[in-house]
Amino acid sequence: MLPHPPLTEHYPSTDAKPAFVNHLFDAGARYYDGVVDWGFLRSGSFYRRWVQQRHGLKPGMHVLDVACGTGLVAVEAAKILGAAENITCLDPSEGMLAVAREKLPAKFVVGRAEALPFSDGTFDFLTMGYALRHVTDLETTFREYHRVLRPGGKALILEVTKPSGRLANFFFRVYFGRVYPALTQLFTRSRDARDMMRYYWETMDACVPPETVLAALRAAGFGEVERTKMIGLFSEYSALKPR
Ligand SMILES: C[S@@+](CC[C@H](N)C(=O)[O-])C[C@H]1O[C@@H](n2cnc3c(N)ncnc32)[C@H](O)[C@@H]1O
Questions:
Q1: 172-225: per-residue pLDDT in tens?
Q2: To test ligand 1's pocket by mutation, which of 35, 73, 91 has the most ligand atoms within 8 angstroms of CB?
Q3: What's the rounded Cα separation, in Å, for the pair 93 and 78?
Q4: 28 lines ligand 1 (CB under 6 A)
Q5: What backbone phi and psi angles, to 5 degrees, belong to 222?
Q6: Single pTM value for the model
Q7: What is the DSSP letter of 150?
Q8: In this structure, which of 18, 27, 57, 105 has its CB flanked by the most CB atoms within 10 Å?
Q9: Residue 56's CB: how many other CB atoms inside 10 A?
Q10: Do residues 112 and 97 make contact, with C-beta atoms less than 8 angstroms apart?
Q11: What are phi and psi of 184, to 5 degrees?
């Protein structure tokens, strides 16, 4: 199951998507933190810490942060754990990983969510922040999450989801589709940064509905699959690997 249909104005087919996405994030890496900081009204650090606390992250756990990017989720996990030594950060973009490596002494691995280079049952807690739209297949990805978690381990997937109400949807489209990419280019003077945020919007707009994500998690073998909505915009997908 694709997270969204191929966006053929950028790449011809899903086979070509990873190379396109990788180039996008490599080129935009140096701008990412600044752009998402003001774009989400400086709420990012607080929210990324709070959501992991609410979903049960505790000191002593072994954590895998898939699609770690510049490390925004992992940095907040390290604050909760009290150290970064039990955190593994994975991302296919060397550019994003280079920024993350400067921030915390976690383990860093180049790789993709669809083929995790870890043994079965390695982690207690797996996070993925704002990257589900970039994988090539939801079920393959979730089967990998299920495999690398120990029995009783939890997957927590964060996403931005288009609101369903007409007015909220209108403001969402105007902000993420037009205002955010335009302001990104104005502030950074970088087309790479603008293109990264434009693609951010295009994938949110094309993304499958939450019910499809929940069904794919169940199909991968997870139990207690839930979606928690936050201010009608943020989706927190959580799922437990049965004991
Ligand atoms: C929008 S950034 C999210 C970064 C960070 N998790 C956060 O909370 O801000 C998306 C990240 O997903 C990564 N990514 C793209 N395709 C991926 C894949 N197939 N598997 C894992 N990560 C992927 C990108 O390289 C990029 O760093």
A1: 999 999 999 999 999 999 999 999 999 999 999 999 999 999 999 999 999 999
A2: 91
A3: 21
A4: no
A5: -75, 150
A6: 0.97
A7: E
A8: 57
A9: 13
A10: no
A11: -60, -45
